[in-house]
Amino acid sequence: MSRIERRKQERLDEVRRFAKESDIPVHNMELLNVALTHTSYANEHRNLKVHDNERLEFLGDAVLDLAVGDYLFRRFPEWPEGDLTRAKASVVCKPACAECAANFHVGDYMLLGRGEEMSGGRTRVSILGNAFESVIGAVYLDNGYEVAAKFILGHMQKFLDQIYRKLPKKMVMSIYGMRSSVMRDRIMIRQYGWNFSLMGKHLEPV
Prior knowledge:
This protein is mostly helical. The chain is built from 13 helices and 2 strands; from the N terminus they run H-H-H-H-H-H-H-H-H-H-H-H-H-E-E. The relative contact order is 0.14. Residues 172-206 have low confidence and may be disordered.
């Protein structure tokens, strides 16, 4: 076995360990390795024909949008398009994706070029956020949409929960105008699926 082949095998072992430790539902380790390969590393190793994660990022971004959009569409049947769009944007934003990636230590397993490595690329929001989308792309290709959506919603739960504590301003104003708190709660439950507590100032799904 050549040095290059040995290094490749060691790398795949690292990726396999990452998948096991972080419970990433991907069986194709070469695919997951691509998801963890930054373009800066690929550019520095062109002689090895290394593929970067940009195409997987593109695919993962689309799957992420669909999974979160589908969840919001079904969860809030009374919300208009504008409110759904704003809610989705707050969940799928780059900082949220980066936090999800950091939670299962994606940065520790990324392949980065020297410049990115020295400038703190392993903790950079843009790189981590893009890597999370790339991993989603790998999960989707390896398992299909249902597994990918479950993976996404599981890791995005914190940000989805934050939506539960917020309402579009026009909904809040129309409900605040009612004198009866009982009536307010009934309207919330009937129209928006919420149990709204004015005293606790929070929202809980019914």
